[in-house]
Amino acid sequence: MTLTYKIVVFPGDGVGREVVPETVKVLKAARDTVTGFDFDFVEFPCGGKYYLESGKEWPDEAWEACKSSDAVLFGAIGYPGAVKPNGVLAGIDILLGLRFDLDLYANLRPAKLFDGVESRILDKGPKDVDFMVVRENTEGLYVPIRGMLSRGGVDELAVDVRVITRKGTERIVRYAFELCMRRNGAPGDGKKRVTCVDKSNVLDGCRFFRKIYDEIAEGYGKVQRDYVYVDAMTQWMIRAPEHYDVVVTSNFQGDILSDLSSVLIGGMGMAPSANVGERYGLFEPVHGSAPDIAGQRKANPIGSILSGKMMLEWLALKHGDKACERTAAKIEEAVSSVLSEENIRTPDLCYGKYSGVTPSTTSEVGDAIVEKIEKS
Ligand code: NAI
Ligand code: MG
Question: Do 218 and 253 fall within a single domain?
Fold first, then answer.
């Protein structure tokens, strides 16, 4: 029986329009090497540029398509000058809205350094960096309970409410422990470890988060408990990445830590992510629309391609689909083998011992990955 997955594709703005086509190309090539599943890709425009052209952030039928999808593949939003009358960046409500409305409560951001990519951190290599940030994605500081107070035309005060619930914390912490059970442990000592990152020395929400972490941890005797305050974490993650296996944290803190972790793996262009819930999944590179390099064929497509790989892993787990699982592994191997060959890389990876390499374009990197997959 062939399972056909409906994948809704939003390239969005800027480099999203360059990296997403490479991802679709790689996914199709990988699918063609196996039997057992197929894709039905349905693409929609969205974001700031579309807003300037049409007055809408996305077409009306896009939401219904997302609700009947098996997965969503997203590029990035953000177009210079595309701002709604309320001052909000056109397109951002789509992305945040999908996270909330599809209940994508777990944001997974792996920090894995590949052979052939130089870490920007002295003395740290691929054997040291392989952890997963599990960020709560539907509450915390990003719930839309906020406001500004103005008096006599003067803006006096702004409030953002931070919401931490039992339900939200239980499910994200459980997700982190379950994921840890499927992984190989921390690179430094091989121990399975879930690190709880918070600011429980100050914030009630964080004390609550940690309390629930402890409750859930009771059920996972094989996993080591670990605690660190978020401010200290910003330096430990860089100084000793090998200590970390799975890192669980609340929304805003996870957003910042996962951008920081991209420094360990070669930069924003290398960082993939998944937003998943019980029913839906949305997969996107961590980076934004990068207007500084958009349209110049310089964007690294690997963050997006590895997000596509995470999509296959998630579909595999959800549907017990072994063909999908094998396909995901093929994509990761192909990326790894292209990077190891040194001569094919976008400009963001041409530093350190690779500074003499002539940079490749976005689609040359995509083509090289496809070629490896076809030969595998
Ligand atoms: P950004 O992630 O777009 O760019 C940050 C830096 O990383 C830039 O120097 C850029 O050139 C580089 N970079 C990003 N993607 C790259 C790639 N694939 N290959 C090589 N280098 C890459 O963040 P920035 O500049 O803060 O934001 C630009 C726009 O994107 C803004 O409008 C922002 O609101 C939006 N944004 C959208 C996000 C999303 O759609 N998920 C996430 C973050 C920002
Ligand atoms: Mg961010």
Answer: yes
Q: Which of 265, 290, 306 is the last residue of a domain?
A: 265
Instruction: Report how far residue 11's alpha carbon sits from residue 77's, in angstroms, rounded to the nearest whole number.
Output: 8
Is 343 found in the same domain as 307?
yes
Ion ligand 2 neighbours (CB, 5 A) are 255
Q: What is the mean pLDDT of residues 351-363?
A: 95
- Regarding whether 153 and 83 lie in a shared domain, the answer is no
Q: Is residue 112 part of a domain?
A: no
Structural domain of 210 = 119-265
Residues 245 and 365 occupy one common structural domain: no
Question: Per this entry, what is the length of the chain?
Answer: 376
pLDDT tens sequence across 243-283: 999 999 999 999 999 889 999 999 999 999 999 999 999 99
Q: Answer yes or no: is 113 within a domain.
A: no
Burial of 43 (0-12, 13-18, 19+ CB in 10 A): middle
Residue 120's pLDDT is what? 84
Phi then psi dihedrals of residue 297, to 5 deg: 60, 30
Residue-wise pLDDT for 144-171, tens only, equals 899 999 999 999 999 999 999 999 999 9
CA distance 350 to 331: 22
Residue 342 has pLDDT above 80, yes or no: no
- Ligand 1 pocket (Cβ < 6 Å) reads 15, 19, 76-78, 89, 95, 268-269, 284, 287-293, 299-300, 303, 348
Question: Is there a catalytic annotation at residue 231?
Answer: yes
pLDDT digits (tens, 9 = 90+) for 22-40: 999 999 999 999 999 999 9
Catalytic site includes residue 318 = no
Place of tokens 């090998």: 242
* 162 in a structural domain: yes
